[in-house]
Amino acid sequence: MATTEPQVLATDVAATAVAAPAANALISVRALDAFFGATRAVRDVNLDFLEGQVTAIIGPSGCGKSTLLRCLNRMHETVTTARVEGEVRLDGKDIYERSVNPIEVRRRIGMVFQRPTPFPTMSVRDNVTAGFRAAGRAAPSRAEQHAIAEWALHRAALWAEVKDRLNDSAMALSGGQQQRLCIARALATKPRVLLLDEPTASLDPLSTQKIEELVYELRGDVTVVIVTHNMQQAARVSDRTAFMLLGDLVEVAPTSRMFTSPSDERTEAYITGRFG
Amino acid sequence: MASTQLHGASVGDRIYRYTTTAFALSIPLLLVLLAFEVAVAAWPALKAFHLGFLTSSAWDAVNGTFGAAPAIYGTIVSSLLALLIATPLAIGVAIFLSEFAPSWLRQPVAFLVDLLAAIPSVVYGLWGIFVLVPFLREQVMPFLADRLHLGDTPLFSGPAYGPSMLAAGLILAIMVLPYISSVTREVLMAVPRSQREAALALGATRWEMIWGAVLPYASSGVMGSVILGLGRALGETMAVTMVIGNRHEISSSLFAPGYTMASVIANEFSEATNDMHLSALMAVGAVLLAITLMVNIIARWLVWRVERRGQA
Predict the structure, then answer these.
(1) Would you call B200 and A119 a contact, using CB atoms and an 8 Å cutoff?
(2) What ipTM was estimated for this complex?
(3) In this complex, do B212 and A120 lie within 8 Å of one another by their Cβ atoms?
(4) Do A122 and B216 make contact, defined as CB atoms within 8 angstroms?
């Protein structure tokens, strides 16, 4: 995995200093705190996500990795009592600025959850175009919808399996197919970033492998951030890996280096299985 | 020793089981017995008039001819009118309470809406006679007929007496609103958070999320709540009897007085002196029972379907 070294490692940044983002950073997180009520689930995180790369966020349960992910598309704030402080810059523009509409942010940054969430009353095709239909103010034509569904299903490596079942209920698909359907649905709006929140946690090994291959395929075109509790998965699919512990970002490094010579002893303890 | 103790416990268990089973079975048995008794008592009238009992408008107790069509028509039209008015309002209230209301407002408003169901039906009727009916006669009916020039359309033609199908529909709408609203609210709150998040993450607005993900997911439960409301409206007696005008006539106009099955029974059971009259009232009761049973079964089935999907 030959990745260009980021100019500034997030862990090198002092809490108060504003570091310049890496040259090829699509998203740069600065001094980010995320709260549930009075509990601080994410503490002062500084991290760059590089364009076209896959970044994995690993760490034990409750370390704040999912919360950090949900701060990247402003989903965190949809929970009552949840609150965010700090900056998340997408292409240099802070998505937490007052003038920014969270709806617009979420249309540019797609998200897939731990369990597949197809809309049960919709057909396979309508599921894929659901976000697309919401985003386009003018109702897209039937042919246009079909074209976008076919494109997205191809991207999600699901087309061959469902091309004859586009009008069937999405609930008729298997769990793994449903999850790839959700990825297709997220891709249909052509987002620049795809956030995956433990996307294979509820799937069998074969479905997991398909999704990992898909993530590998997407790199280059889409910037992917994947949260996983599975270190092998992080090692297999990501260019860079970030390790979180108790709300802190401990270390971020190219994946190959992270798993061979981590610089922090806590990272080493975690990846060698001494806790977690 | 040990074996006798075990044996004793199992006898106690068995007695307990048989007793509770008997209690549980006694309720459906009561329903079957009731339906049977009503059917037996209704039999002479149904035999004498055949299908004419359902289709004829002639209800003449003196000459012994009975046709329940106006009452069946009145029950169905007043109930559907009530649903037409109450459903959008009730769903609106439910959406506000489950999706938009701040938590400090949610409980008090939900409580007040539910309280509408606790008001005795005769109080609604009294309010109907002294407030709603005069208001309809003096304000609403002239406005609809003259100002909006709807007086020549079949729905709003004829003199404005006051007591009318419109009055019955309105009062029923108020009475069924809390039922539809509280069941809809529960069904909406049962929609999993993951469905809402899936819609939001796609860039849906709050409204698009409710309209595109939450309501479709809950649709059959919402349907069930509406049908539950219909069940209430069909059987409501006192308030409707007080405002509908009680006339055995089918009129296309909502301004005209009408009758409902429940009102016929309530008004005439005390003066039903001959057997055929009594049997005719029982037949009306049988028709009403059959309709409400069917409506309730459909409603339960729809709500049950949503709940099952929520667990899956």
Answers:
(1) no
(2) 0.85
(3) no
(4) yes
Which of A275, A224, A247 minimizes the C-alpha distance to A49?
A224
Domain count, chain B: 1
Neighbouring C-beta atoms of residue A36, cutoff 10 Å: 14
Nearest to B194 among A117, A185, A186 (CB): A117
Maximum mean pLDDT: which of B173-182, B266-275, B293-302:
B173-182
d(CA B150, CA B143): 9
Comparing C-alpha atoms, which of B70, B76, B61 is closest to residue B248? B70
B28 found inside a domain? no
Q: What's B281's domain CATH number?
A: 1.10.3720.10
Structural domain spans, chain A:
10-271
Q: Find, in chain B, the residue whose alpha carbon is nearest to that of A179.
A: B198
Give CA–CA dist A233/A192, Å, rounded. 22
CA B281 to chain CA centroid, Å, is 20
**Residue A134 distance to chain B (closest CA, Å):** 6
Query: Which pLDDT score, from 0 to 100, does residue A8 have?
Result: 44
Q: Which residues of A touch B302 (CB under 8 A)?
A: none
Helices (H) and strands (E) in chain A, counts: 10, 10
Nearest 10 degrees: CA dihedral of A239, A245, A249, A253?
-30
Residues of chain B in contact with residue A80, where contact means CB-CB under 8 angstroms, are 103
Q: Does the reported pTM lie above 0.90?
A: no
Looking at A18-32, B17-31, B272-286, which range is the least confident one? A18-32
Q: Is A80 on the interface with B (CB under 8 A)?
A: yes
Asked whether residue B20 is assigned to any structural domain, the reply reads: no
Q: What's the domain range around B240?
A: 49-311
Q: What does the alpha-carbon distance between residue B116 and residue A45 come to, in Å, rounded to a whole number?
A: 52
| Per-position DSSP letters for B92-133, written without gaps between them | HHHHIIIIIS-HHHHHHHHHHHHHGGGS-HHHHHHHIIIIIH
How many beta-carbon pairs below 8 A join chains A and B? Answer: 64
| Class of the CATH-defined domain A10-271 | alpha beta
* Pair of tokens at residue B190: 């049962």
Of the partner residues B103, B195, B205, the one whose CB lies closest to the CB of residue A117:
B195
What strands, in cross-sheet order, belong to the sheet with A39-50? Answer: A39-50, A25-36, A82-90, A93-94
Q: pLDDT of A202-232, one tens digit each?
A: 888 988 998 999 999 898 889 999 999 888 8
**Residue pLDDT, tens place only, B4-56:** 555 556 888 899 999 999 999 999 999 999 999 999 999 999 999 988 899 88
Tally the residues of chain B: 312
Report which DSSP code applies to B143. Answer: I
